[in-house]
Amino acid sequence: VSTLQAHRRENWSEALKPYYVAKHYADRILEGSGLNYTIIRPGGLLNEPGTGRVKAAENLERRTIPREDVADTILVALTEEHTFRRSFDLVSGDQTPAEALKSI
Fold it and tell me: How many CB atoms lie within 10 A of CB 99?
């Protein structure tokens, strides 16, 4: 689990730059490791009940998502082979995690 827009330096918040730097380079090391991976870059994490609805894509605008929905999406991604060796942003949306992952 990374952070929204960690792969796009031009979109980093100056206030959170050390966090973005750490996530960016951790993602790059993982991508170059030869390991099987799925990098999920969620938006701002909320401590509220999940909605069961998400949006997943390569580049998404800054938005939020309940932690529960991120966890549910992680579980789905474990068996969705087309997400392997890929990364994507994740925010609240209008699809189930399974639907959203099939669309990336």
Answer: 15
The Cα 81–Cα 42 span in angstroms is: 19
19 catalytically annotated: yes
Please identify which of the residues 19, 20, 25, 37 carries the catalytic annotation: 19
**Per-residue pLDDT tens digits for 35-71:** 999 999 999 999 999 999 999 998 888 899 999 999 9
Assigned token pair, 51? 């909605």
Give the helix ranges, DSSP H, for 1-104.
Answer: 17-31, 67-77, 97-102
**Cβ(23)–Cβ(31) under 8 Å?**
no
Cβ proximity of 50 and 95 under 8 Å: no
**pLDDT tens digit sequence for 67-99:** 999 999 999 999 999 999 999 999 999 999 999
